[in-house]
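During the reporting period the student researcher (J.K.) took over the structure-prediction task from the postdoctoral fellow and processed the backlog of single-chain submissions. One of the processed entries is reproduced below for the supervisory committee.
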Amino acid sequence: MKLLRYGPKGREKPGMLDDDGKIRDLSGKIDDITPAVIEKKLDQLKKIKPGSLPLVKGRPRMGSPMTGFQKFLCIGLNYEDHAKEAGMPIPTEPILFSKTMNALAGPNDDVARPRGSKKMDWEAELGIVIGKRAKYVSKKDALSYVAGYTIVNDVSEREFQLERGGQWIKGKAIDGFGPVGPWLVTTDEVPNPQKLDIWLDIDGERQQDGNTKTMIFSAAHIVSYLSKIMTLEPGDLIATGTPPGVGGGQKPKRFLKNGEVMTVGIEGLGQQKQKVVKE
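J.K. obtained the following structure tokens:
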């Protein structure tokens, strides 16, 4: 099942993707795709035949596929080649940072360059959406706490992140720097999250081309690890790190310019596209 939210920002409606790739309106069944729906109603929604729902005409804006969740967590340097291109040690346990909710954006929303930005970068990532409260869960059981998966572009400002001291959040939590979606794809459609092709293009030119099988810490490892640090709640989103090919790791370094378009895709999870614009 592929769940989504569509419509103007702040007024999105819940939807479901049918087998023909068309949006079906779910607002007659649920008010929105919230933590409560993710925790308690996914099994009920899976029984609905998408063709029985009203067809949404046109090409509406897509929002983040879920709303109202508490945490937008991120794992850094989770692909060995990315750690090497960044000139940083290979992590021995997951590196954790976060984005704030003002960073959350729809999958195809423009991304505004903040004032003073010179080193704006991209990161294609697999996103994990938590399905039920997780505390001290084992690696063996961890994926049973997952509702589904989505795409995250962990947009980053490298100067803010790495050259101004303090924590990475400075270059990560900027408004709109967390496009998510287009869909929340439930786990029954993603039997193995460690076997997904992941890629990112800039203006049609391939920059990142990887597979989640090369993650240092698997999705199960990450969920288990984080659950021993904090309680994970339904709807919480975890971005799991990016494969090599980011702009800051290239020689010479290559950062985003106004007007350029990022296109991000993960096998089975769809595609998102953002244009870089002046704030």
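The committee noted the following: The two ends are 36 Å apart (CA to CA).
J.K. will present the remaining backlog at the next meeting.
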